[in-house]
Amino acid sequence: MEKLKFEDLQLTKEIRKAIIDIGFEEATPIQYQSIPYILEGKDIIGQAQTGTGKTAAFGIPALEMAESENKNLQSLILCPTRELAVQVAEELKKLSKYKKGIEILPIYGGQPIERQIKALKKGVQIIIGTPGRVKDHMNRQTLKMDTVKMVILDEADEMLDMGFREDIEFILKKIPMQRQTILFSATMPKAILGLTKKYQKNPEFIKMVHKELTVPRIEQYYFEVKEQAKPEILSRLIDIYNLKLSLVFCNTKKGVDKLVENLQARGYLVDGLHGDMRQSQRDSVMSRFRKEAIEILVATDVAARGIDVENVEAVFNYDVPHDEEYYVHRIGRTGRAGKAGRAFTFVVGREIYQIKDIQRYTKTKIISQKIPSLTDIEEIKTNILLEKIRGTVDEGHLGRYIHWTEKLIEEGYTSLDIAASLLKIIIGEKSREISVQEESFSDLEPAPKFVKLFISIGRNQNVRAKDIVGSISRETGLQGKRIGAIEIFDTYTLVEVPRTYADDILDSMNTIKIKGKKITIERAMKK
Ligand code: ADP
Ligand code: MG
């Protein structure tokens, strides 16, 4: 795939700067193809499915062409719903961050009309409105169309489905003929073509064609999630599947940086890869990933292009890709050389339509899955416990424990009941802790990343940080660099450990000695 550079599109400095701030790394195909025509003043029909970046495809040129000194209404964008009008207005506001003197206003039904009238009086150059409410304002003479130079129909098919045809025609008829008419739609039913015939001049038809795609045969799942819950769910999946090497895709550079920071704080070995990094930095990240010194690599599509690493166990679409071709490229990074691979996609709100599109065009099945609960993690942990038991039996040296067991057997209990009861006691304790945690997670506010543990030994016993790190690593396998701050006081020590490891550490360290001294270890603070 060639790179679709925003630089090719001859945008002004102000808009380019805003695009960089937002973090778009390259233009989407519909943006790359539409923007030059719109800037030339041509009418266009743009067809591309949901999530392909149509808003910026018309938003960027609309802002480029807006005149700051001219306080009249210049562009009218029609959207099917209030939600979309607000969303489009927000994206345009971000894109206009450095272009001063442009007023953008969403107007829609449901908001008090008086408030909108007041806002309109201040002079607005770009309006994003639902057809019904725009027509309302026109009838009240609070909105005049005679200065409009550009009209954009966003999601035209949906507007027609919702019965806005008459309103749209009413509005279009009132806009001077000397105007540019832009239409974007995911589908092109006859009714739309009728509209374009009647109201557009020689429109350029830009359609995103779908290539035949071969999708690797790997397990594909999606999860419907809230945006702010993504880091937590990602961590859970990595823990549950015990993933040693994963590739996580974000749509923006900013997204990469944010996620890397978040995962680092959670104690993972993670690094990021995006277009803003120097080649030497990128090479160093890649070589560490290849050597498996990083277990999670977070990347944008551009940066990950050409990456070929064996043994990637899972690919995460942290953001749904803009293009099904990207989807196929991304998930093709796992399941190499006949090995098993998994692809997980996080879906927020309306992105579910993109998943449907991707499935249709790639002719594969992406299976919906429930967000793994902490109870699922418990099941995995239980399996680990069973494994530990097998190991302990194999090792032997169980003399006095056997002695106690025999005592119970003499009393008439069976060894099966005794073993099962012991498991119930151990696991029961764990799941109580889990259910308490589950409550605090239910709203998925950011979980505390580290917890502080108290260890009953300190400076008076000549304890140094490396003794603490050493014994935690030995007992639990947690790598030293994942351990947080260590504070040593005269008689005790406080150590920060990743939240997800706290229970294991507490379990396995309560019977050990440090510097020859028996210790106790417990949580330092209640949350
Ligand atoms: P559509 O209208 O085609 O359904 P949107 O314009 O709503 O799609 O864009 C979907 C998402 O993609 C939005 O979150 C938007 O900010 C983001 N986006 C748009 N263009 C780009 C780009 N060039 N690079 C990365 N993300 C983009
Ligand atoms: Mg849209």
List keywords for this structure.
527 residues, alpha/beta, Rossmann fold, 4 domains, seven-stranded parallel sheet, 44% helix, binds adenosine-5'-diphosphate, binds magnesium ion
With helices defined by DSSP (H or I, 4 residues minimum), what is the helix count?
Answer: 20
Which structural category do the helix and sheet elements fall into? alpha/beta
Compute the CA-based radius of gyration. Answer: 30 Å
CATH uppermost class of the largest domain: Alpha Beta
Describe the structure.
This protein has helices at 13-22, 29-40, 54-65, 82-95, 113-121, 131-139, 156-161, 165-174, 190-199, 230-240, 253-265, 279-290, 301-304, 324-331, 352-362, 374-395, 399-410, 415-441, 465-476, 502-509; strands spanning 44-47, 75-78, 104-107, 126-129, 150-153, 180-185, 204-207, 219-224, 246-249, 270-273, 296-299, 314-317, 342-347, 367-368, 450-455, 486-488, 493-498, 513-514, 517-518, 521-523. It has 527 residues and is α/β, with parallel strands linked by helices. The chain has 4 domains: 6-207, P-loop containing nucleotide triphosphate hydrolases (Rossmann fold); 219-374, Rossmann fold (3-Layer(aba) Sandwich), CATH 3.40.50.300; 375-427, no CATH class; 450-523, RRM (RNA recognition motif) domain (Alpha-Beta Plaits). It has a 7-stranded parallel beta sheet, sandwiched between helices. The chain has a 7-stranded parallel beta sheet with strand order 10-11-9-12-13-8-14, with helices on both faces. Strands 16-17-15-20 form a 4-stranded antiparallel beta sheet, covered by helices on one side. The longest helix has 27 residues, at 415-441. It starts with 12 loop residues before the first helix and ends with a strand. Residues 54-55, 154-155 line the site of magnesium ion.
